[in-house]
Automatic annotation (TrEMBL):
All residue ranges annotated as the M23ase beta-sheet core domain in the record: 22-116
Organism encoding this protein: Catenuloplanes niger
Name of the molecule in the record: Murein DD-endopeptidase MepM/ murein hydrolase activator NlpD
Pfam family, one: Peptidase_M23
Top-level taxon of origin: Bacteria
Disordered: annotated span: 1-20
InterPro entries: Cell_wall_metabolism_enzyme, Dup_hybrid_motif, M23ase_b-sheet_dom
Gene Ontology terms, MF aspect: metalloendopeptidase activity
Keywords: Hydrolase, Signal
Length: 134
């Protein structure tokens, strides 16, 4: 997004099982009308309305896909983008948003949802149990 750095108002909180409810992205609080920019180079896979909200999805190299909603879409499907390319402007209407407007930013690799803050080096590290030596 452009302008002052957005505030993280809700972090990535995936469910323990894929079919359970959870928060599969981060919500970034900002002012309505803030320019929403692509997180990286890729191709616009989808740009349109889903359930009455503007959504843009960008396919990136390495099988990653970012999504941005709710936005007033300002780009077309199939268009190549670089990091920072404007995708549209932030719209109001994200449920549960405590700010004037919130961008729900998602990241996936295939069917697996990832913390989009990892792209910025801001994601939470998760330690795994140490495996015994064979």
């Amino acid at each position: 997004m452009s302008g002052p750095p957005p505030q993280i108002v809700r972090r990535f909180d995936p469910p323990p099982q894929r079919w359970l409810p959870g928060h599969r992205g981060v919500d970034l609080g900002a002012s309505p009308g803030t320019i929403v920019r692509s997180a990286g180079a890729g191709t616009v896979l989808f740009a349109g309305q889903v359930a009455g909200q503007g959504v843009v999805s960008v396919e990136h190299p390495g099988g990653l896909r970012t999504t941005y909603q709710p936005v007033h879409v300002g780009i077309a499907r199939g268009q190549p983008v670089t990091a920072g390319t404007p995708l549209g402007t932030l719209a109001t209407g994200h449920p549960g948003c405590p700010a004037a407007a919130c961008l729900h930013w998602g990241l996936r690799r295939g069917a697996e949802y990832l913390d989009p803050l990892l792209v910025l080096g801001l994601g939470r590290a998760r330690l795994l149990p140490r495996q015994p030596n064979p």
